[in-house]
Amino acid sequence: MLFGRNKKNPIKIADKKVVEWKYATCGYCSTGCSIEVGFNDEGKAVSSRGVADADVNRGKLCLKGIFEHELFTSAGRGLTPLQRDNWHQSWQRTSWDIALDQVYDGIKTIQDKYGRDSFAVISTGQMLTEEFYTLGKLTRGLIGTNNYDGNTTLCMASAVSGYKRSFGSDGPPGCYEDFEHTDCLIAWGSNLPEQHPIIYWRFKEAQEKRRFPLIVVDPRVTMLAQNADIHLAITPGTDVVLQNALMHVIFNENLQDNDYIMANTNGLDELMAEVEKYDPISAAKICGIDEDTIRSVARLYAGAGAAMSIWTMGINQSTHGSDGVVGINNLALITGNIGKPGGTSLSITGQCNAMGTREWSSCSGLPNHRLLENEQDRKDIAEFWNIDEEFLPKKRGMFQTDIYHAIEAGHIKGLWLIATNPLSSLPNSERVRRAMQKLEFCVVQDCYEDSESNQYAHVYLPAGTWAEKEGVMTNTERRINLINAIIPPQGEAKPDLWIFNQMAKRFNQDGKVSFPDKSADIFLEMGRISKGRLADISGMDHALLEKSRGVQWPYTEQQASAGEAPPPGGKRLYTEPATFRYADGKAKLIPLPFIDNNEVPDEKFPVWLNTGRLIEHWHGRTKTGKIGNNNKYSPIPFIEINPDLALELGIKRGEYVRLVSRRSDAVVMATPTQRVPKNMVFLPFHFHDCANRLTLGLLDPHSRQPAYKQSAVRIERLEDQKAAAQLSMEMRNF
Amino acid sequence: MFERRDNEPDYAVLKSRVIEAGSATTNRYGTPIETVQSDNSLRNQSLNINQDSEIGDNPDRYKQHGFYFNADNCIACHACEAACSEKNDNPAHIAFRSVGFVEGGTYPAYQRLNISMACNHCDDPVCLKGCPTRAYTKFAEYGAVLQDPDICFGCGYCTWVCPYNAPQLDPEKGQVTKCNMCVDRLEVGLKPACSSACLGNALDFGVIEDIPDNRSQAKADIPGFPRTDITHPNIRFQQIRTTQREMTRVDQTAIKYHRSDEPSTTYEESPFIPELDPKQGYQRQWNLKKLLTSHENAHIAFTLSAQLVMGAFLWFFAGSFMSDSMIGVDSFSSGPAYLPGLMILVALITTGLYKLNMHLGKPHRFYRGFYNLRYSPVSREIAGVSLFLAGLVLFTLCAFFEHPFLKALQLITGLIALAGIMIGGYFMYKLYRIEARPFWNHINTASSFIGTGLVLGSLFVALINTAVGVMPQQLNTLLLFTISIGLVIEMAGLCYHRLSLKSAKSEGAASFYEQTTTYGYAYVLRNSLLLLSLIISLSLLVTEYQALWTYLLLASTSLISAIIGRALFYVVVIPTTMPGGFFWRNKGFVEHARETGLADMPQMGVVYEKHHSFNLNELITTIKNTSINDKIDQFKRIFSG
Predict the structure, then answer these.
(1) Closest Cα partner for A354 from A77, A117, A615, A31?
(2) Across residues A415-430, what is the average pLDDT?
(3) Chain A CB contacts of B12 below 8 Å
(4) Rounded CA gap, B634 and B641, in Å?
(5) pLDDT number for residue B211
(6) Average pLDDT of chain A?
(7) Mean pLDDT of B574-602
(8) Percent of chain B whose predicted confidence (pLDDT) is above 70
(9) Would you state the pLDDT for residue B266?
(10) CA–CA separation, B555 vs B553, rounded Å?
(11) With 90 as the cut, is the pLDDT of residue A178 above it?
């Protein structure tokens, strides 16, 4: 058989000469994959691989995780603190002490002059939980501003709000193992293969064993929609109508689980009265799904032994985001699909530690889902932190989106941005840009110096990234997993925890409040105030987390001391009757009237703008835009446009076009595809100065999350393609 | 050995093949799956991976392996590509595996099919046969086709012949690399990195023709996958879900795949027929700059100069040894243009060869061009042209002297040169008869090469003779007649080419489309100039008018048409390769990134074409470090393999 060389040379295959593998949890999405980074004998991170015995990912990684070791030394990392008096001046290098003093002085000056709440802190879902907790303690306990929120408002706020409204508390009740048990899966505005590839793989594994039906609700023919048994190509922003119509059919045909409803819920009559209005015939006209399909989906879902729903931004990023979540919960509750294997309503979270910030950051309240509005919660925490109870506000302050409106209005004068980049990520960039220019004092703390929001900062604090720091993160299925500090931060950059602790020293000169240095100790402190609560983590410590490849909460001290090892997975919430978090243990069935306040296409702006994620990119591309083996699959912004529309407009494949909305414009490359309908374009949001120049982002009344996915644009053909290419390129430093 | 963890997940572990009664011992092409018999001396040898002399304990080590791809399941998550590039430490612009797309249907009945493809470790590896340096070996172990970049001199011919875009020519390093089947993982019983990383449960790997658990099909055709009779690729597909009738490539290539309702009866037949998809409309353009500044210019310079010199040499040879004054060729061999003419010919072909050599990724490894005389038309072409050059140079030297002995010697060297023309010329043509490049794989390639040789060669002789004023009428007529014949041959070839391609069910149709749209005006100009040349040539023939300016005019029309024609030949060729994506593996985007400067960003995954320097040090080191015996062995292996 052999032919070619009879005398063969030795085969050369790349050998990265890994001498040590170090454990971490992936820092991209919320799936929470266990990852090992390989180091060579020079101590350089050269390789990444999935941890084989981790229940979440079972050895797999997506393309971002596979190249995560390249993050540490990627371009644009901040290596030294920077300072300047005005944002239009050039940066001066400075020392940590001076920079931190300046931040302290800046915050104090603003607060003294305009009041405590005139300084805002915007955090993230990207840091480690101990860091969130410490920042919360610093902000709530010492700085004392109530305008403290995280960028999770942009992704998960609707899920949080919907869970709270339905179940009395945040906390996704299901887990990945539910795929193994479900008899029907509805994916609402969730494109698992692209957004959460490893969760998709877990789903696929389950589906290959047991061919349960998949229903996908998405206006775009995503890979998941294409592979679905039923694809509901819904009109953007009308999920609530579809949900009401499904419930209408379920009640009308008496398919609901009456025993479950009786034992576990309140509000059935009000709900039934509302959904009575949504007969499939009328609903079809609004949501674009024909009555027949509505009926058959309702029957399939309600008739399944166990049925589950997953959702992501298609639901959350809408003016009815919170309602959409409640609608999903309603469907689950009336069919008895909460807390049982394969029956759940599982929000697929976005950022790696969005869950950690929801649980522990004190952004929307106090640690471990405590509420500022609850006197006992305030008292407990004030006591635990050794601060004056009255120092805590009695009501939560502004959401991130409202903070920006307050900057615009001049109510907020100073801002501390931590690991988030609103200039790229908030809707209507132009409005954000104007607001940022008004700030009297702005601090940006980020692992990347080239984060666009840094343009308007007065002080820049270089932070460590991902596994340059030790701490934990919580994933979509409530699994807390460990990140080791496997490599020191680049240059003079410091872990965020260190930065918070240094700031705390300045605000805590009497030493009243304790700020432990070590992440592991902070975790134990958090464990103490989690006892007896829904998210009880008192049985865990860092060593156990690594050993178990992550532990799902709750896992209590009692379980630990009784020698009960945490299960590898499959843990659910609300498995016992009437254990929801409302006082009577019952969940609420909430009627959802539909109000159509979306920006919809009209004569001037005739095309839907749908935004979304690409598998190869992470958020604003500060990470993936610099890793060639991720970035190359979509290095410049583009739209998916229906070929029939392209033909009408005279746009050819690969040409640049200009999108214009009521806010501003964006230059993007056109890729014609029938994946989108003729009245819609799809534009990935990852690129700076692009999608969010166009988006309106009306806010959800409950969650204050912006509706990124429903805007209207018009498309203009560009005669001078060379100039367009140049313009597009100028906006891409990475 | 590759580090195998104690707890490797099941999906990453190769399942040992259980030989059941009735299970296939040969593959669908009739080749035994067992690569070598149990008593073969090739057994139980180490692969010497990174100098490790251990021998893997994989029980299926001597069975042909291949990838298995369930196209219904692929979600284009790129994990296979990432895992491959991570393992092989590839920069962004190089990938041994790529996922491409074809799509079809109308919203919402839309369908995209993602195809992940690397090397198919073919039974009949055309890369191996084509490679002039013998950088390829098909191993008895796993039937893996491996390539050694340390041998490669970066000509890229393997990338021309492979229908699957498997070998990757790195413009930065000037060498080819490719999928190595992760033989280091196979040796310890693990599947390749790509298969182990798959998140759609689409990509798998194993002994060829084995159908993995939970799968029911093993076919060799899906839309976008080239026909299998070219190389007998070792890849099997499952693709059960009915595709749309027309599946279109999302990259720039103007091709779609039309599903035939006839089920294929033989493995050569794919039910998905490539057809023209005029993506960019029918607007005719110039694009002269793009046409004339391509990286293939070295090939234009080489083929044109070689054909001119070969064509002209025929006259010089005839002039030297045919004293029949009826033809009049002897007159110029005694004239003042003879010696300078020969010297110009030597200079021309040397320049052509120099350009060609410097076009290599590693020009200092030029001597390796002969290494694969057994299989490679490139090696044979190089050998033939070298023979011609040697003959020509000696012939020219002999021409300086008037000694009878040298006259005889000149005849011999002339005959050597003629043999060089026969061999070199034939293989120069033959090497373009590539199944995976329908635009070239046509008799037109021959007519074009011959026509060019006749036209330019004769024009050269006519010009120098007219310039020095030695041009008997008979010779003039004969030259013009030959030029006209050459032009007619070329035009006939082009007409036939056009006829064959226009309606071709292959990438040839897309090439023709590119030729008549993107380069439409250049194409028209070339054709017009050809016609004009023929008109001039025939008019001169008829009127017997003889002047330097007429020849200069004819030379310029012919030469311009030859250059444009040859540039079109190289630029519009479209291989029967795998579909790409919209950005990655899209020739259109690569060109755009290079034109606009996007390619300056390394994370773009696009690098510029570039020329590589002649590394004299490496050459000297190689010469020094290779013993005489090794050199002799090397030489022997040109013939023995």
Answers:
(1) A31
(2) 97
(3) 59
(4) 9
(5) 93
(6) 97
(7) 95
(8) 97
(9) 64
(10) 5
(11) yes
pLDDT of residue B18: 65
What are the beta bridge partners of residue B168?
B177
Chain A residue with minimum CA distance to B71 = A227
Q: Which residues of B touch A17 (CB under 8 A)?
A: none
Residues B192 and B186 sit within 8 Å (Cβ to Cβ): yes
What residues in B contact A642, CB-CB < 8 Å? 107
Contact B42 A61 (CB under 8 A): no
CA distance A438 to chain B (A): 34
Q: Among B43, B583, B594, B638, which would you mutate to test the A interface (most chain A Cβ atoms within 10 Å of its Cβ)?
A: B583
- Assembly ipTM: 0.96
Residues 6+ apart with CB under 8 A from B78: A63, A615, A616, A633, B99
List, as one string, the DSSP characters of B288-343.
Answer: HHHHHTSTTHHHHHHHHHHHHHHHHHHHHHHHHH---TTT-HHHHHSSTTHHHHHH
What residues of chain A lie within 8 A of the CB of B102, using their CB? none
Taking 70 as the threshold, does the pLDDT of residue B19 lie above it?
no
CA B355 to chain A, closest CA, distance in angstroms equals 29
**B295-502 is classed in which CATH architecture?**
Up-down Bundle (1.20)
| Mean pLDDT in residue range A286-303 | 98
Out of A198, A635, A638, the one facing B605 most closely (by C-beta) is A635
Q: What number is the average pLDDT over the span A341-358?
A: 96
Flag whether pLDDT at A1 surpasses 60.
Answer: no
Which domains does chain A show, CATH number per domain?
18-70 (2.20.25.90), 82-153+373-558 (3.40.50.740), 157-347 (3.40.228.10), 607-730 (2.40.40.20)
Residue ranges of the alpha helices (H) in A127-231?
129-136, 157-167, 192-195, 197-209, 223-226
What residues of chain A lie within 8 A of the CB of B98, using their CB?
none
- Contact in structure between A195 and A29 (CB atoms under 8 Å): yes
Look at residue A8 in the predicted model and tell me its pLDDT: 84
Give how far B459 is from chain A: nearest CA, Å: 42
pLDDT value, residue B21: 61
Angstrom distance (rounded) from CA A42 to CA A44: 5
Asked if pLDDT for residue A577 goes beyond 80, the answer is: yes
Domain boundaries, chain B: 295-502
Segment A483-500 shows an average pLDDT of: 98
Query: Is residue B30 predicted with pLDDT exceeding 60?
Result: yes
**Cα B459 to Cα B464: distance, rounded to the nearest angstrom:** 9
First to last CA, chain B: 29
What is the model's pLDDT at position B324?
A: 65
Q: Shortest CB distance from A200 goes to which of B151, B199, B583? A: B199
Q: What pLDDT, on a 0 to 100 scale, did the predictor assign at position B330?
A: 78
Nearest CB partner across the interface for B89, out of A14, A231, A634:
A14
Yes or no: say if B298 and B356 are a contact pair by the CB < 8 Å rule. yes
| Chain A interface, best mutation among B40, B75, B115, by max A CB count within 10 A | B75
The Cβ of residue B218 has, within 10 Å, a number of other Cβ atoms equal to 17
**pLDDT value of residue A369:** 95
| Binary contact (B197, A66; C-beta < 8 A) | yes
Cβ contacts of A671 within 8 Å, gap of 6 or more: A638, A639, A640, A641, A653, A654, B250, B582
Amino acid found at A292: D
Q: How far is B604 from chain A (nearest CA, A)?
A: 5
Distance, CA of A551 to CA of A540 (rounded, Å): 8
CB contact under 8 A, A67 and B183: no
CB spacing of B50 vs A11 below 8 angstroms: yes
Chain A hits for B148, CB-CB cut-off 8 Å, are 9, 11-12
Nearest to A11 among B134, B138, B146 (CB): B146
Q: Which amino acid is at A437?
A: Q
Amino acid found at A312: T
